[in-house]
Amino acid sequence: MALSRVPGEDELYVGGIFTLRRKSTLASTGITHVVSVLKYDFKDFEDWEKYGHLNVEVDDVDDENLLGEFERTGSWIEKALKEGKDGKKGKVLIHW
């Protein structure tokens, strides 16, 4: 899955894990923050410190409790979009 913008006023995007490997796409889109919805060790990704990051560690199973993560994740995304980075509004990628 490539990077897709969610319709609306905010700069909110969705994509798969391989979107993170497309550095030129992240840069040209201006992504400032990343929400990762999976159990994964991201220490091997280069330039990871460039982005604000929230890792929602869940398994890809039918009975995973995603609702328990909504409030924390939603608040984090709202803050990232509002506060952004370097004086500009944030652009958030949510991937799984």
TrEMBL record:
Its EC number is 3.1.3.48. It comes from the Eukaryota. Keywords: Hydrolase, Protein phosphatase. It is an enzyme of class 3 (hydrolase). InterPro entries: Prot-tyrosine_phosphatase-like. Gene3D superfamilies: Protein tyrosine phosphatase superfamily. GO terms for molecular function: protein tyrosine phosphatase activity; protein tyrosine/serine/threonine phosphatase activity. Transmembrane segments: none annotated. One of its GO terms (cellular component) is nucleus. PANTHER family: DUAL SPECIFICITY PROTEIN PHOSPHATASE 12 (PTHR45848:SF4), DUAL SPECIFICITY PROTEIN PHOSPHATASE 12 FAMILY MEMBER (PTHR45848). Belongs to the protein-tyrosine phosphatase family. Non-receptor class dual specificity subfamily. This is protein-tyrosine-phosphatase. The lineage of its organism: Eukaryota, Fungi, Dikarya, Ascomycota, Pezizomycotina.
